[in-house]
Design brief:
The two termini are 13 Å apart. The strands form three sheets. Strands 1, 2, 3, 4, 5, 6, 7 and 8 form an eight-stranded antiparallel beta sheet that branches. Strands 10-9-19-18-17-14 form a six-stranded antiparallel beta sheet, with no helix packed on it. A five-stranded antiparallel beta sheet has the order 11-12-13-15-16, with no helix packed on it. The chain has strands spanning 37-39, 51-53, 67-76, 78-84, 90-98, 102-112, 118-126, 129-137, 163-167, 170-174, 176-184, 190-198, 205-213, 222-225, 231-239, 246-251, 260-268, 273-283, 289-300. It has one domain (37-300). It has 302 residues and is mostly beta strands. The radius of gyration is 18 Å and the shape is globular.
């Protein structure tokens, strides 16, 4: 199943761990406003990998489904350009205007056509900051996600209950559409299991779950609370029906006042199948606490 295009006003990846405003930024390309300043690094000065969305196969042109989401700490409002270098025939870029300071998520659109299968290292740049991430391009004709190759077995990621949770008596569930295991060596030292999904029946809501660590250790059975910046998790659930999608629930190390606790109950480094539960508190787009219960997930990285 191909991930539908969604403009996320959310965040992700323990990896990114940013608190942000749900204000849509608007484009002022060619305008007279001063350039924005800020950084792609988190509050402790570490680079964090982006969330990679879409399928990447050699010889297949990029579409609106191919993009990455990066976190930005905006220090001075103004025009911005965030982009990567070109590797293997593709690059990522977005430009616009930051109206206020604070933490933001920015979606960088992929451009070009991957020439060869294999892993490439990209450098994302904004202001004076630069951060690297790796992206795997699959062989021609593959439909795996950008973090790896191959198709996961039917019944794991494609299961209508691959992820599920309850909030205020409402049962949410659906499949995962992109699952990746990302590893960045020191100084980032990040190991993160990223899971992106959507509601099965309508595809109008999207979910992002990341569990991982900044210690360099492999994913293992254990507890990953969202308020932990070292070994923790992030969670975002977005309603994609409105013209500007609405962040319904979010939790992460810099989301003050929320703590959604993920428990990894099993993980195989061989099959890359992860399984676990989650429950606790999140915030909605207005900062109201929302309780999540009966959360479960089971996924396989490509």
């Amino acid at each position: 199943m191909q991930m539908r295009k969604t403009y996320f006003i959310s965040l992700l990846a323990l990896c990114s761990l940013f608190l942000f405003s749900c204000e849509k930024e608007y484009s002022l390309e060619g305008g007279t406003a001063a350039a924005s300043t800020g950084t792609l690094k988190d509050s402790v000065g570490a680079c964090v990998p982006p969330l990679i969305m879409g399928n990447y196969a050699a010889g297949t042109p990029m579409t609106d489904s191919n993009y990455i989401i990066v976190g930005v700490r905006v220090l001075v409002p103004g025009n911005y350009v965030i982009s990567t270098n070109t590797q293997n025939g593709i690059s990522f870029k977005d430009s616009g205007f930051f109206a206020t300071t604070g933490y933001r998520l920015v979606q960088l659109k992929a451009m070009g056509t991957p020439a060869l299968a294999g892993t490439s290292t990209f450098t994302t740049s904004f202001d004076t900051s630069a951060c690297a991430f790796s992206l795997l391009v699959n062989p021609p004709g593959s439909t795996g996600g950008g973090g790896g190759g191959g198709n996961p077995p039917v019944g794991i990621n494609d299961n209508d209950s691959a992820w599920q949770f309850i909030e205020n008596g409402v049962f949410f569930h659906g499949p995962f559409t992109a699952v990746t295991l990302q590893t960045l060596p020191p100084p980032a030292n990040v190991v993160a299991f990223n899971m992106a999904g959507e509601t099965f029946d309508t595809g109008d809501s999207t979910i992002n779950i990341t569990v991982g660590n900044r210690t360099g250790a492999n994913i293992a059975v254990g507890t990953y609370p969202s308020n932990n910046n070292s070994v923790g998790s992030t969670f975002n659930f977005v309603d994609g029906v409105p013209a500007t999608p609405v962040l319904l629930y979010t939790a992460g190390p810099l989301v003050t006042g929320a703590n959604l606790v993920f428990q990894v109950t099993s993980y195989s480094a061989t099959t890359k199948i992860i399984e676990g539960t989650f429950s606790g508190t999140t915030l909605n787009n207005t900062g109201v606490v929302k309780n999540i219960t009966n959360g479960k997930f089971r996924a396989q990285a490509n």
